[in-house]
Amino acid sequence: MFILSGCLICCAFAQRITVTIQAGSARPSEGRGSAGRPISPDIFGIFFEDLNYAADGGLYAEMVQNRSFEYSSLDHPGWHAFTGWEMVKRGGAKGSYFIGDANPLHPNNPRYLETDCDAGGEGSAVGISNSGFDGMVLKKGEEYNFTVFARQQPGRSISLEIRLESKDGALRGRAEIPQLTSEWKKYSATILADKDDENGRLILLARGRGIVYLDMISLFPQKTFRNRPNGLRADLAQAIADLKPRFIRFPGGCLVHGDGLKNLYRWKDTIGPVEHRREQKNIWRYHQTLGLGYFEYFQFCEDIGAKPLPVVAAGVSCQNTDRYWGVGQQAIAMEEMPAYVQEVLDVVEWANGPAATEWGARRAEAGHPEPFNLQYLGVGNEDAQTPAFRERFKIIYNAVKAKYPDLTVIGTVGPNPEGPDYDNGWKFADELRLEMVDEHCYKPPHWFWANLDRFDAYDRSRSKVYLGEYAAHDVRRQTTLRSALAEAAYMTSLERNGDMVRMSSYAPLLGKLGHTQWNPDLIYFTNTTVNPTINYYVQQMFNLNAGDFYLPVAVDSLEKADNFALSPVRDSKSGDIIVKLVNGGPDSRSLRIELVGVENIATNAVKTILSGDPLTVNDAGNPQPLVPEISTIAVGPVFDYESPPHSLTVIRIKSQTP
After folding, report:
1. Phi, psi of 87 (to 5 degrees)
2. pTM
3. 307-312 and 376-379: which strand pairing?
4. CATH number of 85-221
5. 3-state secondary structure string across 450-463
6. What whole-number distance in Å separates Cα of residue 562 and Cα of residue 172?
7. Residue ranges of the domains in the chain?
8. Which of 62, 296, 382, 487 is catalytic?
9. Strands (E), 224-383
């Protein structure tokens, strides 16, 4: 069976396929074909999870690793509070260091460094060095913002020298803090790098005798995305912005409900001054500073014109919690649920409430007096459909809808597109009459081709769908043109069912080379490079060419053809007709495209095409992908097009309806 835009067709490879598009009408097509339908304005977005070092060491621009000495073996086997740091002694100085916790900056940030210095001689200094995440990238002529919280032993006179150095000790830039006080104080300096260096390090040197206390040692490039303080890595954030996503789901999937109840992602721990945020282990077995927190996520959404879609835990932890020890899903005690429900309600007030409200005031204090206009809230992620989950989800859902009836609450139907959790999740959604549920789907490329009609049969009276996580997993989980085209074909079916599938997002988004816990990913990166995959370009082509109405279409053909799909849509704002064609087969497809019901069709259209060897691999081992090629094509009310083998083509046509 071959599905082309929801209809069965047949054609011989040599025979031209006639595609008739009712381009000027919103009426269903007659005979064999697809009915016209509105398409959700939020159909294509992105999903960010702090996985594969996506946040710390990735999108979050902090250059210092373990800046507040909170690493531990709970984060990763072998890690400890000194991970990332080394002792430095120069000019015959003596000294030692250890971790203190008697007088912290904040209860959420309990540990700091104590260094006992004996560095009173000329050129004598004791200090520490940090090479960041696989080295610090320094760029000639650019400035870096250094901050530290420090104090000294009373009655002493200790100064600090801050140095940017190469791996072999060559100076790249410096600053001085001439005198510390005996109370915690934040010190700042701006350092200019005088040479490029991809393996730089930060050195703090103390001069004098006595004990110096250090915490929250930080280094940021001044040139963050949109020059935001505590901001994002500019090139990586720009690659995400270039996708033109309609929304961003954050801060993750499994990360949200965490590795046990003590590891739930609690949004209130992620706002306010960074030194007050409670760091914790990452369920993916590294560390979260939470410097990239709710304010930064919402601000990024606003900066790139994407709607925020935060996800909160549904009162239970991940069912895979400590799976080797058999712990499984844990549930918040019922007597603690009122407080947790209030926490969920408070995030809506924080995002949308006036500055005069308690949590709206906290948002305003952070620099955003106007509301963020939150429209969506996810509750839960791939949760096992247990009685404990259902009971807690229902409590949260009822409370949120009672106070915020216009907010769309998105439920969950498990990790797979079939099975007990999927079936029971949909039954539960029907019971509550949820507005939307979150489906997930990781399957081989052939599954996506075989299921192009999946959403055609969905009951429109039931919950709408957010396809929150999906990807075509090819052999060895590589990113290939074959997997990308399978996803493109599936995306045509999402557009065709844009009244039912309101949102969708590929997953995961980011993967740092050398630190991936999951493959494939949409964008691979190092400290110096950003490598979009072939799959990235498919997502981008759909995002840049999304319409708001799926046009009625009929296909006239005689014999069977496999691996071919199309989607004709209209962008009402521009009046453009956009035709997407996916040819996953080894032969070209001869098409005759007829546009009915439009006038003044431009003689030329913009054609964007992605094509090549279907087994072209673009992942950690091959950072140079196939990229789309843009040209023009002659068009008219009727025109012919030869769809190349193994290709995605987007044809954007200027026109006017009568």
Report:
1. -75, 140
2. 0.95
3. parallel
4. 2.60.120.260
5. HCCCHHHHCCCCCC
6. 59
7. 85-221
8. 382
9. 247-250, 280-282, 286-288, 307-312, 376-379
